[in-house]
Amino acid sequence: MLLQQIINGIIIGSSYALIALGLNLIWSITDIADFAQGGIYVIAAYVAYYVVTAAKLPFILGWLCAIVIGGGLAYLIERFLYRRWTGKSRIQLLCAIALFFLMANLAILLFTPKAKIFPAYVQGAFNVGGFTVSFQRVVVLLVSAALFVVVFLFIMKTRMGKAIRAASQDRLVAQVVGINIHTVNSTVFVLGGMLSATAAVLISPLYAVFPAMGDLPLLKSLVVVILGGFGSVAGVLVGGLGLGLAESLGSVYISSAYQHGFAFFVLILVLMFFPKGLFGRV
Amino acid sequence: MGDIKLTADTLKPVPVWRRFLVPGIILILLILVPVFASEYVVYVAVLAIIYAMLAGSYDLTTGYAGPLTFCHGAFYGLGAYASALLTIKASFPFWIAFPISGILVFIFAFIIGYPALKLKGHYFAVTTFFFGYFVYLVLLNSAKLTGGPMGLRGIQAPESFFGINFATLQGSYYLTLFFAVLFLGFLYFLVNSGFGRMLVAIRENEDLAEATGINTALFKVLAFSLGAAIAGMTGSLFAHFFRLLHPTTFAWMTSEMIVIMALVGGLGTLIGPIIGAFIVTFILEIMRFAPEYRYIIWSLALIIILIIEPAGLMGIVRRLQRRKR
Questions:
Q1: B18: pLDDT strictly greater than 80
Q2: B299 CB near a chain A CB, below 8 Å?
Q3: Looking at chain B from residue 101 to 130, which residues have their Cβ under 8 Å from any Cβ of chain A?
Q4: For an engineered disulfide with B71, which of A117, A240, B55, B132 has Cβ 3.0 to 4.6 Å away?
């Protein structure tokens, strides 16, 4: 029971961490708490769902379509909306929240509020120490881990990654040394959109596809970003897994009705003692 | 902050009669509404006045003091449930439960706001978003107390007072209007007092305000809690008018609607959010035939307002005035 809950917690936590990774990059570079990623998450899940069920294409193609749509939406939103208000972070935040509601409600209109069952992409399960773990959950875990490594290498090893790190430390100085800040912005938004889309596609076969599916992952990923601190990949990982564990253990040992409220408690507690987040470097 | 250009009400003294011209006309029209309008219009007008109180009190926190918050609907809900439960479970009369609900919400907002307002910028905004969600969750899940998803029934209308029966639509209309004038008048007095000017100073430059000796943390939390308390008492009025409460009434969308109303009218002007509340409520009613489009249109409207004029209707008015000169 305990082990089962720990595994569940790690899996749900890794999906928070995936969305939070993109959000964290966006937030640390453009100073936008990008609520729109919650909408992209929903739209991407529906795209993958229809590609897999209606068009009867393989799962991997559904994922690819979701990534393209997710990244594309994020690019368009940054290019045509957020960029207008560079430096006016309050308007950007309001716009982000409006976009989130817009996309979630468009999903209700286009796809009806009824929950849809996403077919499992990997069948079967295996036994470990007396309880079963489905292969699907293992896939979620492995893909998340792989993506974390890829993003980490991208940020640490490539030229673009270096530019992103520079911009997250100081936008102005980064521009002075010749970094095109617009390209950096577009890159992190596209990356964020792709990561949110991936998280949606990975996790939705475990639960279901419905218009409000983005609400909780979005809120919790924002908590993870704040917990982890800006510009810290390790912070995102620890924050995401920690929150996932706190939730799944808390729902068993404290109260399942408040499962989604733990994020708020964890947030308030951490901010009381570490106002800059767990791994903050400001 | 300071990126949404707000009114510089310190610029030029406006003659007193002109200041009260627009609110005066609105008030006279509102007093006359039950005389010539149908029951349905009166009913919608009560809701519009309730929203005007919410948007006006939201303006105190976000428009004048500065921090963007997304939990005003939660305070509205807390006040509504507090007042309803006090009258049902503790059989308090409405006239006692009403102020108590305001005091309770004030204390609650103060306790939440004091640590949270130390967070800067978006950290605070996002935290209030969670707080709003958390309150919704508590209202939904403490089913024994609040009825949870079944809703809370059996709320009584306010007891008669001076022979006025508040169980009738007209009675509750005038009751709501009376408190709206009282609260909004209080807010008007507040934002034009030294307190309000200190809030504007904090909004425009918090470091500078602190350097001149203003206890910025205290003033911000006071503005936050006072706005919350008025929202709470508005919730109490709503509870005893509608007499049925459900957690979804106080979920995110309500908080977002309040933000939209304040933005439509123009933050930091007080009259702007009030006018915004009326416009939004009546358009929402007109759109009742297509409920699935409501939130889509409003989200789009918000984005368009931000693109055209982030200072809202009052920003457009000011722009026209400037062109005339």
A1: no
A2: yes
A3: 115-116, 118-119, 121-123, 125-127, 129-130
A4: B132
